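Chain A, query sequence.
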Amino acid sequence: MPRWSPDAALRLEAAAMTLFAEQGYAGTTVPQIAEAAGLTTRTFFRHFSDKRDVLFLRDREFPQAVSDFMASIPQERGGTATVRAGLAAACRGIQGWREEIARRRGIIRSEPALHERDLLRSHHLALAIEQSLTQRGIDPVLAHTLAALAVTCFDLAMDRWLEGPSDLPLEDALTAVWTDLQGWLNE
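Chain A, predicted structure.
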């Protein structure tokens, strides 16, 4: 078996999420996760540094995906339009993961020890957006500001999406947050 296997990582993630739901985050151990996944503890540590990492497995790729979506936006579009289009495309990509995202968010919000790691997730997304904008020639100060606003809007949209009706598209929640922000800034 290769040192790192996406299949093993996904099995570990699924086992961990089930155990976290049944026993709570604090009551679940790494050996329990590995056993539930049918793998060894050693395999767990090939994929994750600790059990916190399991909750953030999919966040490893998300900033790059947003950057890739932004890179596909025509160069003549401005910074705000590029960010909005990139995040909208990302929303369409994760629309089907609502239940998993809601479970993950519930665990993270119930454990104060995970809040810092969640902030780091937002920071990585902001850095990816900022770098994408500066590569497009956007002024670095504007790129930094737009990235911070974009991450805030995205996080607020996630809240609206997860707390709203089950048929609410994430992209619509994001559009509503952007619209609200524009209105508030124009007051």
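The mean pLDDT is 91. Residues 112-135 form the longest helix (24 residues).
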